[in-house]
Structures are given as structure tokens and as C-alpha cells.
Amino acid sequence: MFQKGKVMKRFKKQSSSKANEAVTTWIAQAIVNVQFKWSNWMYKKTSRWNKKEQSLFLYLILLVFGGISGLIMYRTITGKTSKDSAGQHSFAGPMTRPGVKKIHDPGNQSQPDTTAFSRFYHYIDSVGTTPAGKKQLDSFFRARPHFIDSVKEAERIIRRNF
């Protein structure tokens, strides 16, 4: 195993790829060391057991972990979620930003919002009644071909949100 002082010296002297390799090696050796200590501890605890007791313990462990794995697979396939301590359904998923809340209360709709579009259409109709006004409107709409579509879309969005 690496000694702490030597590992730190290696990081300073070697390139980053070799330093990453040294860290990876150190982590792998630490995992193997933990596994070795666990197996030794389990061996000491079960060394006096006969074959039947060892088999029973093995089946118990397999049953517990198999049950947990089966439950996870069942919930994954069926899409059922569990309830957390507050009684809310919890699920694993990416965090998203909260969206804008739509207001559906007709009391919040102001008079200018509802009448602005009707006044605009009335103005266009009244200007279009004279020949000079008709020319003016035609030149305006030729210069801005999608203007009326934008106005209708804005009206649709405002009416939908209120």
C-alpha cells in the first residue's frame, strides 16, 4: 500500500494522468482491504458453525437481498412510488425549475387587457373605410407581413391565461 507522504510527493512530481492512476490504485486497494477485513470478521464469527447453520445463514442473506432486489425491480417495472415520512409520494428524477403559474381567476383580468384588442380591430376597420386609409393599411401590412398574425397570437395567449 501507499504511504501518505509518498502519495502526496507523487502527485506533485508526476503528470495528472499518472496522479489519477495513483489515486485509482489507492482507492482500489482500500476497497480490497475493506473486503478482506469483512471476510476475516465473518469467518471468525461463523467458524464454529456447522454446515447446516452456514447454509441457513447463506439462504437467509440471499432471501433478504433477493427480496430487496425483487422489490426494486417490481417498483421499477410497475412505476409505483413509495411514500416518504411526510406521506408524500417520492420518486427519483431530475430536478427541474419551477414553472410559471397560470392565473385562471377571472377577477384578475383587467379591463385594458380585454378591450385593447377590440379597440385595435375597430381602429383597423375604421381606417380601412376610406381610400387613403386603405392605402395606408396596405403599405403598413406589406412592410410588416406577419404583424396581424403576431397580434392574434398575443390575443390568444392573453385570453388563455386569464
Radius of gyration: 37 Å
User: How do the helices and strands follow one another from N- to C-terminus?
Assistant: HHHEEHHH
Strand order of the largest sheet: 1-2
**Unreliable residue runs:** none
Q: Total number of helical segments? A: 6
SS-based class: mainly alpha
What is the terminal-to-terminal distance? Answer: 69 Å
Average pLDDT over all residues: 78
Helix fraction bin: over 70%
Number of strands: 2
Largest sheet: 2 strands, antiparallel
Total of domains: 3
Residue fraction in strands: under 5%
Q: Shape, please?
A: elongated
Q: What does this 3D model show about the protein?
A:
By secondary structure, the chain is an all-alpha fold. The protein has three domains: 1-48; 49-81; 106-161, no CATH class. Helices cover 70% and strands 2% of the residues. The chain has a two-stranded antiparallel ribbon with strand order 1-2. A hairpin with a 5-residue loop joins strand 1 (82-83) and strand 2. The longest helix has 31 residues, at 16-46.
Q: What would a concise description of this structure say?
A:
With 162 residues, the protein is mainly α. It has helices at 4-13, 16-46, 51-78, 111-127, 131-143, 147-161; strands at 82-83, 89-90. The chain has six helices and two strands, in the order αααββααα.
Strand-helix topology:
Blueprint: H1 4-13, H2 16-46, H3 51-78, E1 82-83, E2 89-90, H4 111-127, H5 131-143, H6 147-161
Antiparallel strand pairs: 1-2
Can you give keywords for this protein?
mainly alpha, single chain, 162 residues, 6 helices, two-stranded antiparallel ribbon, 3 domains
